[in-house]
């Protein structure tokens, strides 16, 4: 506390002066001056006078008084805080840093002091020390009772209570970084990505050395496909003075999403060279090597992962999912042992358990034990189905709404509008329909760049759908009809701009292979009238069974039940048929079996639809060494083979639910059923 003189003035006079400080600082100063005439140099009065002068806008007069107080009361936090804060405000950063260094040594448990010190150090260009000060502020925050109470409420799901606590804190401490980050987490848990990003960005802007907040921000940016920004933040994070393997891991994750597989591979090698006993990193390395087409190395990486962690279901599935790899008897025994060891932890280890079932399904399929194979696939799918949300009835309703909206009359009424860019080639359909093969053939043409399954059109569509969900429009047709020519042009330009980051060459056309975009063919042509759409279609039993046997890392929630995937295929065929009638010739259809039977003829047809000349390189697509990130990545590196055309027959005894769900679509294939 501030050192007292022997003759202390009346407490009442000091209390009166203090009460006037905020709203009438000039009156407070008059009272304090009277006190100081009675007790010259009285430290509490001197401190109150300096605070009054500052609030009157006379900071330069207050500064020497605070300096003198700090010299005499070197361990009084309030004096050091006021001096540091005022000096920083006046631009006297060296003096501010000295005071704040002293403050944080005296009172290291107060986060705000560290954050102010960090901001002041940054003004002096001392970025490394500023980063450490931010980290010290975060550490102090982890022991703050108020923040701990809010964090407990968040973890208990009491989001409203936590939000109220944090907002009160921000009223007292505007831009408090930990409070902003935690409010961002609350918004994220509620599904409000816009608010989450705004709050977490605010935390990082206020405290650039807040590594945990930056890590969270990177993940949010990846979730919203803002990849260049995510990369910039990930690059910053790797420069933290507190080194963590997690920083390079998240950088590698962003690089993978951006298609920069080679650099990601280098990061994984660096991490494993320093610490080889990391099964997750071995698995991630395997994913990158698989994408790059280095299959032997990918297999070795996945085996390193399961050797170190035999219950690591995803690594086993990654091995099984290499379509050209067969798991043998020793692998089956190891996976069965892993399942046995997890028998009492199914609820906690669902990810590992269902991955192991899918892997055993593939292993028994390779061994031609189809009853055992089907049983494991069924178990894996049933467990995975409990973890995803898919309402087949609601989805069918959305498909009907699209079909009823994009009629020939509606399309004609829209006229010419939208972004005229001819760049995109959309390859749509179901997963496992041969779309990767089509993409690889097209990407072997000198005018076409292959990218990946891009989420951007689905994000645009979801944003439009949210306007219905939030009550702005009564239904889908009303919302679509409300889009003006300017709106349609803007949305098309947004898609072109958002996907630019994935284009690594100067080729004028590019492939977007997101299969689910079949749901949005009407929207695509509305906002990108010169885009081309290729519908890759495969025998419904082959396609649906292959999708059901395939565990997808994300999305495709309709694939985990034979009835639901059959119904989805039926919805898809129906919508595409409706669009064919509404806009004949807009969509070009590739039948997988025809592509296998006469590849050159089908390739020539596709290129003619695209308005491009035939190139022989398209027939040697398997020599294209571009990165491929889908489940068919190994298959498209080899010439077309016929072996997979009738594999569904091995499971025919169990396909009744699928056949029933497909209904008239099955006998009509490759055409759509007649109305």
Automatic annotation (TrEMBL):
One of its GO terms (molecular function) is protein-tyrosine sulfotransferase activity. It holds the Pfam family TPR_8. TPR repeats lie at residues 279-312. One of its GO terms (biological process) is proteolysis. SMART domains: TPR. The keyword Zinc-finger does not apply. Keywords: Hydrolase, Protease, TPR repeat, Transferase. It comes from the Bacteria. InterPro entries: P-loop_NTPase (IPR027417), TPR-like_helical_dom_sf (IPR011990), TPR_rpt (IPR019734), TPST-like (IPR026634). The keyword Transferase applies. PANTHER family: PROTEIN-TYROSINE SULFOTRANSFERASE, PROTEIN-TYROSINE SULFOTRANSFERASE 2. This is Putative Zn-dependent protease. It comes from Novosphingobium hassiacum. The lineage of its organism: Bacteria, Pseudomonadati, Pseudomonadota, Alphaproteobacteria, Sphingomonadales.
